[in-house]
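Fig. S4 source data, part A: sequence.
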Amino acid sequence: MIAATGAQFELTGEQRAIGALAAEVARREIAPFVAQWDRDHVFPRELYRKLTDAGIMGILVPEAYGGAGADYVSYALAIEELARVDAGTAVTVSVHTMICSAILRLGSDEQKARWLRELAAGDVIAGFALTESDAGSDAANIRAPANRTPDGYLLNGRKQWCTNGSYAGVIMAMFRTGGDGAKGVSAFLIDPATPGISVERVTEKLGIHTSNTCDLAFDDVAVALSSRLGEEGAGFGNAMRALTAGRIGIAAQAIGILAACLDESVAFAKERVAFGKPIGSFEGVSFKIAQMSTDLDAARMLTYRAAALADAGQPFAIAASKAKLFASTAARKHAAQALQIHGGYGYTTEFSAERHYRDAKITEIYEGTSEIQQLVIARSHLGRLD
């Protein structure tokens, strides 16, 4: 049982069923192939059509647009089960869902009609383009301009670390439409087939090799006024709200990595014999597993609480920051412990401990670094003192 706004509740049958379905799809469609995908840095595009059949690509999209119409708790459970098998797949779905949510909240009727059904059907994958070379955590400092034209806007600039960028059918991107600071930023929904958009570089990463990350170039890209998502100048706030929801997904991704580390560590500790007995009988191993299990439960409680608050329509930004901060820290810490438990085997690709170790670190960086989460949480108590 977990607490939300002081009340106790349990996962519903529907939520459990969605989690179980995601686990089954991951076991059948991802697990047999993920080691090879990771080695070859494969983005498994056809996988997302299979995830669509399970309702995962449109998990938060209302049934009226062809989605599953599920809630954030169900979404967190699905992401956890995907990440338990492959963290790269989980973040692809997480960012895709984050954009779906932004369109639902901010989109015009025309934008919803154009994009949501295709996104829910898996025909289109959504990408996100915010970061620039001099604007990462300081996202209000983006400089790429969107200049008004008689018919809409002309976009120019470079965007880094665009998740799903090479395979996206729609990109939520931030450009500067006004002066300095947050109030001059606007959000746009852009078809990447629009002339002037190109992939400049696919980013080689430490982990999450099945997730696509790239740099996008925008050279005199003409878009209609109707491509703007939300009000002009409100894009920074819209991006931050999207990232707040996205933090639930990344916390769930971290939980999935941590759960895999626990499962595999327990199995190895029972089977591996040293000094005449299973290594799990030694406190140096068993205590690591005990702490891993405890932190897994704590991460789940924080994440489910944030998701439940979002479902209840209540403020959840601080809860999401706490969930992401704790879950990502725990995933990184215990991925290292899982590798240590596996010893020399953990340092080889024969076991997946090394992949979890590589995948875990990014959860402390994207969708807001751990330092940004601490800043958000601290300001909720102290306000701004600068």
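Fig. S4 source data, part B ends here. Residues 2 and 118 are 35 Å apart (CA to CA).
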